[in-house]
TrEMBL record:
Protein known as: DUF1501 domain-containing protein
InterPro entries: Alkaline_phosphatase_core_sf, DUF1501, TAT_signal
Organism: Fimbriiglobus ruber
Any single Pfam family the record assigns to this protein: DUF1501
Residues in coiled coil: none
Length: 451
């Protein structure tokens, strides 16, 4: 018999069987019901708070009041004696005992695209290998095969300047992020505000009008049969990755776990505490996803009302007013996230990372702004696996150089891996047949911040 006719006949028979008996025989129906039957128990997790554009260390975590480079920003005392941070972060100052502030970050990449790629993958861009972003490689290692939600969710990313920095690289589509609220900068309602509740819901989960659940399941089974035949002749990790991604997407469409994205289930007092804005509600969503077993969530702060350029921390102009607006959103959301995780017994198993692609120049430019700066800047780690209440590294009085305890990007990412219980030396096979470690072999975890 002609092979193409045989394939068509087999597919037709499979589709027919699925359409009449999918409720008892289809893999998708079984997976969906199994997922709905039990809520995932949270395990180790990581939340990345990504500050798109490169935040000013001088006006957040490493203020220099009294020096010409310090500008008008004052430092305030914190819960940790002797540690002072920006006056724009009073709520976080009161929770400094939970924070490990890394003031000795130093790289050579002060371009948005290259800096983002380095911070998010641990590698300098270039060469034949497409490296996975941190959410993909950490999510992969912490993922569970029976999970009803993806292992990596990205909230409000701004990927325009460095798309490769946000992708799964050689790990394939199986570990790509589920993205919500992307391209939301100018997505305003009639009142000129962002419709946050709508933006944070997963799009395209509903079946087309006129398509019943039974018919939708039959279509999914039919597609899976086509994939199976294709992979029988063309086996490989890429095809399997696509098939797995489609299966999990279809499972999500029919899973009760998708209710995690419905923030109206939360009390108004909790929502108000985080802040009724995209970043604040994104942080609340991150907590809800951790509760449901998602191992990696990133929430991007790239814009606030009156600062809608998508790279809000890129403060070449009017730095001080812009940073204050951003911190007015950051401070309550970050603080509420720490409190909420702690209140629910999740902070001990959830590592929270605050970072951007680089810092800003200590010297203030003629436009009252700060430009790109990679030589000496700050990141913050808190929560699971981390000893808070300390500062690691010290910059000079003018902020121009790291005077004590420089930290590289591989060092930082190795620390994150250790904090969530992973071995940074763990290897994955790349698309060129070469095993690649999670983090570069030169990495040295910051031992003093690991609990």
């Amino acid at each position: 018999m002609n092979r193409s006719l045989d394939l068509s006949r087999r597919h037709f028979l499979r589709a027919g069987a699925a359409s009449t008996a999918v409720s008892v025989s289809g893999w998708l129906g079984n997976l969906a019901r199994a997922a709905d039957a039990a809520r995932s128990k949270p395990g180790r997790a990581c939340i990345l708070l990504w500050m798109n554009g490169g935040p000013s260390q001088m006006d957040t975590w490493d203020p220099k009041p009294g020096h010409d480079n310090g500008g008008p920003v004052e430092g305030i005392g914190t819960k940790v004696p002797g540690v002072r941070i920006s006056e724009h972060l009073p709520k976080l100052a009161a929770r400094a005992d939970k924070l490990a502030i890394i003031r000795g970050m130093s790289t050579k990449e002060a371009d948005h695209g290259r800096g983002s790629y380095l911070l998010r993958t641990g590698r300098v861009p270039g060469g034949p290998i497409r490296y996975p972003t941190v959410g993909s490689f950490v999510g992969k290692e912490l993922d569970r095969p029976d999970a009803e939600l993806p292992c990596f969710v990205s909230v409000a990313p701004f990927r325009f300047l460095s798309p490769e920095a946000y992708g799964p690289g050689f790990l394939g589509p199986r570990y790509a992020p589920l993205v919500v609220a992307e391209n939301s900068i100018n997505d305003l309602n009639r009142g000129g505000q962002q419709d946050v509740a709508r933006l944070l819901k997963v799009q395209d989960l509903d079946l087309p009008a006129g398509v019943s659940d039974t018919r939708g399941l039959a279509r999914a089974d039919f597609r899976d049969a086509l994939d199976a035949d294709f992979l029988a002749d063309r086996p490989g990790p890429s095809g399997e990755g696509h098939r797995t991604a489609y299966r999990r997407a279809n499972t999500l469409m029919r899973s009760a776990a998708v209710k995690a994205f419905d923030l109206t289930e939360e009390k108004d007092a909790i929502r108000d505490k985080y802040g009724r804005n995209l970043f604040g509600q994104g942080c609340l969503l991150a907590r809800r996803l951790v509760e449901r077993g998602v191992p990696f969530i990133e929430v991007t702060l790239s814009t606030v009302p009156g600062l809608n350029n998508g790279i809000g921390w890129d403060t070449h102009l009017d730095n001080f007013a812009s940073v204050k607006k951003l911190c007015d959103v950051l401070d309550p959301a970050f603080a509420a996230l720490l409190d909420d995780l702690a209140d629910r017994g999740l902070l001990a198993t959830t590592t929270v990372v605050w970072m951007g692609e680089f810092g800003r120049t200590p010297k203030i430019n003629p436009q009252k702004g700060r430009d790109h700066w990679a030589n000496s800047w700050s990141t913050v780690i808190a929560g699971g696996g981390i000893k808070g209440g300390q500062v690691v590294g010290q910059t000079s009085a003018d902020g121009m150089e790291v005077k004590d305890r420089p930290v590289s990007v591989p060092d930082l990412l190795a620390t994150v891996c250790k904090a969530v219980g992973l071995d940074p030396a763990k290897q994955n096979d790349s698309t060129i047949g070469r095993p690649i470690r999670l983090v570069e072999p030169t990495a040295a975890p910051i031992k003093e911040v690991l609990s």
